[in-house]
Here is the input.
Amino acid sequence: MTPRHEIFEILLVEDNLADITLVREALKQQSIPCNLHVIQDGAKAIAFLQQPDDSQTPRLDLVLLDMHLPKCDGDEILHALRATVRNARTPVIVMTSSVAPRDRATAERHSALHCFAKPASLDGFMQLGVMVRDVLLKTTIGPDGSYVTGGGTA
Here is the structure.
């Protein structure tokens, strides 16, 4: 199977402006063709995810999610994402500077594909682009309309 389309729809939920810039650079460095939807607080992310299926909001190919956000945290956002029809099976990469086991457990409970520890170096952060590219290239749409990642259901 091949990816759904040529331009990927990626939701970035991140409140740190420097990290948003680094994510953009990591995607650019990997030449990932995408529409990057940036939302900086949890409540707005949930509202974005809960828009009706008949809206202009696209089906997401990937969510990049910081776990610690204003208004609603990553756990609430992941719960809202998984409760939607359109994006319930969307692959998620959790991005966090936290080393708390609770954050990793939350990511795993909501079937996040990866937990990316935000590094202190630019080169380290650019590895996020490699991770995103790998997820997007391995993700396809199955016959039932669900996402299939790396041979299994995402």
